[in-house]
From TrEMBL:
It is found in: Cell membrane. Its main location: membrane. PANTHER family: RIBOFLAVIN TRANSPORTER RIBU. It is a multi-pass membrane protein. It comes from Gallibacter intestinalis. The lineage of its organism: Bacteria, Bacillati, Bacillota, Clostridia, Eubacteriales. The chain crosses the membrane at residues 27-48, 60-82, 94-116, 123-143, 163-183. Probably a riboflavin-binding protein that interacts with the energy-coupling factor (ECF) ABC-transporter complex. The keyword Manganese does not apply. This is Riboflavin transporter. The keyword Cell membrane applies.
């Protein structure tokens, strides 16, 4: 290998490193936006005030569509941990775990569908499938995890299942709709 080839290879390695650094910086920015958005919250069903809507999953879904499901999981875990130790500290480990399960399921399902079939129709299918998957996984998650962490009987959680299902459908559906509406505009910046 001559000196010119070595210099070209070195320049290529720097470019790859720079690309990875820029991608990580953009992912970190999405985490920061999610942390800000979690402060916008309100109950969907006023009698059950702890079931609050927040738009914090929108940047995570945008990151998933832009960078793939593995990046989406990484953004989800980092966001859940940071939220769990800062703005949502009252929910503690329970909140972190439930956030990772709910959003992680959404991200995996929607992310894999969109990764292999990009386009508007596929985005709609991915977001609907992600919404349904998140709603489905939160039924057993609430039945098994909530009684343990909250010290309530399983029957109390079972009585809330219609609200748990409706809450997850509404929250994930609204976040999916907003993601669909803004993704193409935001993706131009993320793919620069």
């Amino acid at each position: 290998m001559n000196g010119q080839n070595a210099a070209d290879n070195g320049a290529g390695a720097v470019t790859l490193t720079q690309k990875k650094t820029v991608k990580l910086a953009k992912m970190a920015m999405l985490v920061a936006i999610s942390l800000l958005l979690v402060n916008i919250h309100f109950p969907i069903f006023p009698p059950i005030a702890f079931m609050e809507y927040d738009p914090a999953d929108i940047p995570i879904l945008i990151g998933t569509f832009a960078f793939g499901p593995a990046a989406g999981i990484l953004i989800t875990v980092v966001t859940a941990l940071l939220q769990g130790f800062t703005v949502s500290a009252a929910s503690g480990l329970y909140g972190i775990l439930m956030h990772i399960i709910a959003t992680g399921t959404y991200v995996l399902v929607a992310g894999f569908i969109y990764k292999f079939h990009k386009g508007k129709k596929s985005a709609v299918i991915a977001l609907i499938a992600g919404t349904l998957a998140m709603t489905a996984i939160m039924v057993p998650a609430n039945l098994t995890i909530t009684p343990y962490f909250m010290g309530v009987p399983v029957d109390a959680v079972t009585a809330l299942l219609p609200f748990i299902i409706a809450f997850n459908l509404i929250k994930a559906g609204v976040n999916g709709l907003i993601t669909f509406l803004v993704y193409k505009r935001v993706s131009k910046f993320l793919h620069r």
